[in-house]
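Me: I hope this is not a bother. Any chance you could explain this protein sequence and its structure tokens? It all follows right here:
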Amino acid sequence: MAEQTAVMKVPFLWEGTDRKGKKVKGKSMAGDEAAVRADLRRQGVVPTRIRKQRKSMFAGAAKITTGDIAIFSRQLATMLSAGIPLVQAFEIVGTGHDNAAMQKLILTIKQDVEGGSALAEALAKHPLYFDDLFVNLVESGEQAGALETLLDKIATYKEKTEAIKKKIKKALTYPAAVLVVAFIVTTILLIFVIPAFEDLFQGFGADLPTFTRMVIDLSQFVREKGWYLAIMIIAAIAGFLYMKKRSRALRQNLDKMTLKIPVIGPIMQKASIARYARTLSTMFAAGVPLVEALESVAGATGNIVYEQAVLQMRDEVATGQRLQQAMENTDLFPNMVIQMIAVGEESGSLDDMSAKVADFYEEDVDNAVDNLSSLLEPMIMAILGVLVGGLVVAMYLPIFKMGSVV
């Protein structure tokens, strides 16, 4: 029976008629066509056509994102809170997922749980998707008999951190996309439009303005050596990404530089503090000892500078230092954060105070990102105007010069 429920289900598109003779169509997840027919008959639908949904030739292999894990956490927490048994909850969530990779992951975990493994142990077999923080919290929930409560906290934590990431990505994606478009438009003008003006100017019999001459020389360079330049740029970017992935020292220097960039640096700092506070609150509320919690918190900050600082704090707390003092020693946390953590330590409500810090800084990041978008928009328009407008002016300068001579 367990083998039947673990069959991989795929999407089927169907058409048919309902009890009233009305034409209906839809989509069902099933192991084969016979299962779809049986399910439709139970619904009172007479199928006239059933076919397996094909993947688009332009669609790449589905990947599991952190957003998928966040949604999975919320679905599982909701079902357990409703009293649905764990294995059945995995079956419902897994078979109903559109992402085949996520479906396979969930059903694989379900098989391990059915085989007698603890949920934390089954999740730990997939470290690429479930980090130490996730596994430790689930383990704490299983040991305390409050798995649904801990899963709810995990889901909230994942949703909050994902919201911050999406907000920052959205703020940076827009200007990056506009600059890419500006680069493409400028390249097209240099390759196809400027040469037409160059041919026109050759019959003038007069010296061209310096600015116009510079633009024409740039156009010739792009046409003659553009491919070499493009290859060099692509190679440089690929090399940089390769080194960044494998060199922790490079990532650390980049994170340090990011924190010092005007406007963007403070946003990244606030985002790291928000993640620090949110993770600390979640771990401490789950009953995880502070020293052990700080180790998981370090990896969740999203910045190597803060990660190393939190690990330093962990070592100091392990020797008897108060968390407030350890935070002060890093010189990375604002006084307001330190004072709120101090109040939490004194009152025995560190989880609540950390959650308040996280709420405050998450809202602060939202506002800062909105302000950044408003600030960047006129700057981007100015850059576009200088690039495209400069090329246009350069091409019309000789014509203006001829007009003044006449």
